[in-house]
């Protein structure tokens, strides 16, 4: 569906069913350079099992108009505006990588409207190699290739796919090469408030990590889990692109936690 947020048309995937504000809402937030397509399996499952799905493309990403937002703080504030524009009240926030940082900022504004927070393949801080940012500014396609080579686990580098006939690395390259990857990466690199925001959370939290994550190492995700007082769930044989690389495993972890809250 399309909604208007701050005067700009924003695309929000709803998992294949009409959006219903009267159902519990699961908000799926994509990582740097990505869009709603990284949540294909997860969004459909929630939509057909009693939830409304709100999976927005950030401004300037794929089907959403507007200029890319240059800070995590701005992304969080924009998400609140988007939820308000759609008439959404209570939410379960789920963020992959950059999406979780964005969720932390939004949660500080939403307060008790946040019923749960789920972190996927992320940490409270996501420093980015300056060489990757520079490459993303001058050659987005090459930067996307670099990220995807590091972002997927070993099996996917040899062509293994959770979806028969489709290769997530190829899909990811097409998405990221045409989105404002450099802006997203700089926003992550500059963000320093993650630990403070995580400490302010009062809702139930869950942390799902990938054993082969080379972009946001597992040890950093474990620090986040420890600060939240929760035990991280670790998915073996998967890397940083967890929603695309291990959709069934990540969905199982997500839905188990959210159903326990619901």
Characterise the protein shown here:
Helix 4 (130-138) packs across helix 5. By secondary structure, the protein is an alpha/beta fold. The chain has helices at residues 40-47, 72-85, 98-110, 130-138, 140-151, 154-157, 168-176, 181-190, 194-200, 218-228, 242-245, 247-261, and strands spanning 2-5, 8-13, 25-29, 52-56, 91-96, 114-120, 205-210, 233-235. It has an eight-stranded mixed sheet with strand order 1-2-4-3-5-6-7-8, with helices on both faces. It starts with a strand and ends with a helix. The chain is globular, with a radius of gyration of 17 Å.
Instruction: Assign an overall shape.
Output: globular
Please give the order of strands in the largest beta sheet: 1-2-4-3-5-6-7-8
CATH superfamily: Alpha/Beta hydrolase fold, catalytic domain
Instruction: Return the structural class.
Output: alpha/beta
- The helix fraction, in percent, is 40-55%
Provide the CATH topology. Rossmann fold
- CATH C-level name: Alpha Beta
Provide mean pLDDT, rounded.
92
Low-pLDDT ranges = none
Number of domains as seen in the coordinates: 1
Order of helices and strands: EEEHEHEHEHHHHHHEHEHH
The amount of beta strand, in percent, is: 15-25%
Task: Characterize the largest beta sheet: strand count, sense, and whether it forms a barrel.
Answer: 8 strands, mixed
């Amino acid at each position: 569906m399309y909604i208007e947020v701050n005067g700009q048309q924003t695309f929000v995937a709803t998992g294949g069913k009409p959006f219903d504000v009267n159902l519990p809402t699961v908000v799926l937030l994509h990582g740097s350079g990505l869009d709603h397509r990284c949540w294909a399996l997860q969004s459909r499952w929630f939509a057909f099992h009693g939830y409304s799905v709100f999976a927005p493309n950030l401004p300037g990403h794929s089907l959403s108009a507007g200029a890319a937002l240059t800070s995590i703080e701005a992304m969080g504030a924009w998400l609140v505006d988007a939820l308000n524009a759609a008439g959404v009240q209570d939410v379960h926030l789920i963020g992959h990588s950059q999406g979780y940082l964005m969720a932390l900022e939004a949660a500080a504004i939403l307060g008790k409207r946040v019923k749960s927070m789920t972190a996927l393949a992320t940490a409270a801080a996501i420093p980015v190699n300056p060489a990757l940012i520079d490459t993303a500014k001058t050659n987005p396609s090459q930067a996307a290739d670099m990220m995807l080579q590091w972002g997927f686990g070993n099996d996917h580098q040899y062509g293994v796919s959770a979806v028969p006939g489709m290769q997530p690395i190829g899909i990811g390259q097409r998405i990221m090469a045409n989105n404002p990857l450099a802006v997203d990466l700089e926003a992550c690199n500059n963000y320093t408030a993650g630990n403070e925001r995580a400490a302010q959370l009062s809702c139930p939290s869950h942390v799902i990590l990938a054993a082969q994550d080379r972009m946001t190492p597992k040890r950093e995700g474990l620090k986040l889990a420890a600060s939240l007082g929760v035990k991280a769930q670790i998915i073996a044989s998967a890397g940083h692109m967890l929603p695309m690389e291990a959709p069934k495993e990540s969905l199982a972890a997500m839905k188990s936690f959210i159903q326990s809250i619901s």
